[in-house]
Design goal:
372 residues, alpha+beta, 5-stranded mixed β-sheet, 8 helices, elongated
Amino acid sequence: MTISLREQLKEYLAERRVRKNRLVTKDGRCNIEYGNIMHRNRFAYILDIWTTFVETRWRFVILYFVASFTLSWFIFGLVWYWIARDNGDLTWQNPPDNHVPCVINVQGLTAAFLYSLETQTTVGYGYRAITPLCAGAVALIVIQCLIGAIINCFWCGVIMTKIALPKKRAKTITFSESAVICPKKGTLCLQIRVANLRKTLMIGSQIYGKLLRTTVAPEGETVIMDQISIDFMVDAGKDNLFFVCPLTLYHVIDRTSPFFDMAVDTLHQQEFELVVFLDGVAESTSSSCQVRTSYIPQEIMWGYDFLPIISRGKEGKYRVDFSNFAKVVAVPTAHCSYCYHNEPGHHHHSITGIDNQGFEVIDIEVPSSTKM
C-alpha cells in the first residue's frame, strides 16, 4: 500500500513538473511570465482599456460591473443631496410650507441616493420628481442620463464580446492526447488527430506546427526556444481542410524534418515541444479563432497508429465513433528513419529493451564495390 502511494506521488510530481515546464498546455494556454516591465509601459493597458476589460477574468468583470454602477449612483446621489441642501429642501433645514424644492420628496441622503438610482436606471416610481425651478438640477439630470447611457453601452459591449470570444469556439475542437509515428503511404510519418465536435464547419482551416527546443548556434550562442516550422497535411493537401469529420494529420519525416535523426530509443531522451496550431473561421459567427496544443517527447508513441473512427452504415450514412479517437494499435515500424529509408551507416538499434512486437529491425546489405 505504501509503495503504491509512493508511485502515485512520484507520477503526480512528474506530471506536475512536465506541466510546469511546457510552454503551451494541452488546452492551449501559454505558460510564460513577463518580468521587469517598465512602469510607463503599464499605462498601455489603461490606454487600451477596451481590450484590457475584454481579457479580464469574469469574476473581476462582475466586480467592476457592480462597482461602476453602485459608485456612479452614490456619486450622483451626493450631488443631488448637495443641490437639495443648497436649496433648503432637507428636513433638518425646516423649509416653509410654501417652499418649492428642486426635487420633490428628496429630504435626506438616502432619498437622494434612491432618486439617483431611479434616474440612471429610468425606473421612475413617481414618488420623487424634479421641478423646473432649479437650473442646476436640470443640467445634472441631463449629465447623469448621458453618463448612465455610456456606462450601460460599455458594459453591454464588454459582456457581449466576452461571450462571443472565439476562444469559446475553440473549446469544441479537440486534439488527440498523443501523437504517433508509423509508416503511411510509403514513408515514415508523425501523425496527430483533430476533431470538430460541432456540426458547423470551420471555414478555411489551416494547420501547422512549431518545434521548440534549445539549440546552440555555430557562433556558440545558446538559442532558447528556437522555433522550427513543421508542416502537417492530409491526403488532399495542407491548406483549406474540409473539417466535416475528425482528421488524421501527418508530418512526413524526411531529411528536412527535425525528427529524421531521432530513433525509438532516443526519442524520449530528447528535449523539445511540438506546438500544433489550427486556424479557421467559425461558420456560424464568421469569427476567426486559433486552437493550440502541444506534445512533448513522452507523448509521442513510436510504432503505433490510430484506430479508424469513420464507418458507413447500411443506409449509406457516415458514422464517427469517438470512442476510438485516441486509441492506438502497434504496427510494424522501423526503429529509426535511417532504417526505414534504407540508408547505410546510420542504424539505431534499440538498446533499452523496449517491448513492442510491432517494431521491425531492417538489415541493410551494402553491395561490395568492384574494380574494373
